[in-house]
């Protein structure tokens, strides 16, 4: 049986595939809309809408992002379908998809709260404070997921990132800063600057 993380990864792949296949459909490359992919997506989203209590914070963050993206794509698909039926469709779906991603980033709530709105196309800044990351796996999970999601939105490579390697980095970095700066808490910040994703470790006074 697939794990929650595996199903969320499949959901992300299916949403990406759905966008590609609808692009082909609206562009005349396929005869029918990709209803099978859409059915799989709806099934997973419904399953975890009913079992939300089983999701960890990092998983819930990812699930919410994916469902928001899917909802906006669905709205685009619905409008394109109406245009297709009316014979007024314009074949610029790639630009529409890009606009959706920008709208997703703009409307996504900033996890730190009380901040100025995030610029279009830029994911919100993510912050988490660690003092004993070896005992704070949930925080490290959230940080890793936020880092990966930000890189994906920025179009950066993520395949070489591993949860184990990331955890090792956080453990070592936290220990080094605690030793050198004589502190207990270390704040990790994920932000996108000039199109590049940065991971910062800051000493908390």
Question: What topology emerges from the helices and strands here?
Answer:
Layout: H1 4-26, H2 35-50, H3 57-86, H4 93-107, E1 126-130, H5 137-153, H6 163-181, E2 186-193, E3 196-203
Antiparallel strand pairs: 1-2, 2-3
Taken in chain order, the helices and strands follow as HHHHEHHEE
Model regions low in confidence, pLDDT < 50 over at least 5 residues: 89-97, 107-118
Oligomer: single chain
Any idea what the radius of gyration is? 20 Å
Average per-residue pLDDT, rounded, comes to 80
Structural overview:
- The structure is a single chain.
- With 205 residues, this protein is mostly helical.
- The chain is 59% helix and 10% strand.
- It is built from 6 helices and 3 strands.
- It has 2 domains: 108 residues; 93 residues, no CATH class.
- The longest helix is centred in the middle third of the chain and has 30 residues.
- α1 packs antiparallel against α2 and α3 packs antiparallel against α4.
């Amino acid at each position: 049986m697939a794990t929650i993380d595996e199903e969320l990864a499949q959901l992300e792949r299916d949403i990406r595939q759905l966008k590609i296949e609808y692009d082909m459909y609206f562009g005349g490359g396929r005869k029918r809309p990709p209803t099978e992919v859409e059915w799989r997506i709806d099934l997973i989203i419904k399953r975890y809408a009913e079992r939300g209590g089983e999701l960890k914070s990092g998983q819930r963050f990812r699930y919410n992002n994916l469902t928001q993206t899917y909802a906006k794509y669905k709205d685009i698909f619905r409008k394109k379908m109406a245009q297709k039926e009316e014979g007024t469709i314009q074949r610029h779906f790639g630009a529409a998809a890009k606009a959706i991603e920008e709208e997703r980033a703009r409307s996504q709530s900033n996890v730190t709260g009380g901040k100025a709105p995030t610029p279009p196309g830029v994911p919100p800044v993510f912050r988490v404070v660690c003092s004993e990351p070896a005992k704070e796996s949930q925080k490290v999970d959230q940080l890793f997921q936020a880092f990966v999601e930000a890189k994906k939105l920025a179009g950066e490579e993520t395949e070489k990132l591993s949860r184990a390697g990331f955890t090792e980095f956080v453990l070592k970095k936290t220990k080094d800063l605690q030793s050198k700066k004589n502190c207990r808490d270390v704040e990790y910040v994920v932000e996108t600057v000039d199109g590049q994703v940065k991971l910062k470790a800051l000493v908390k006074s």
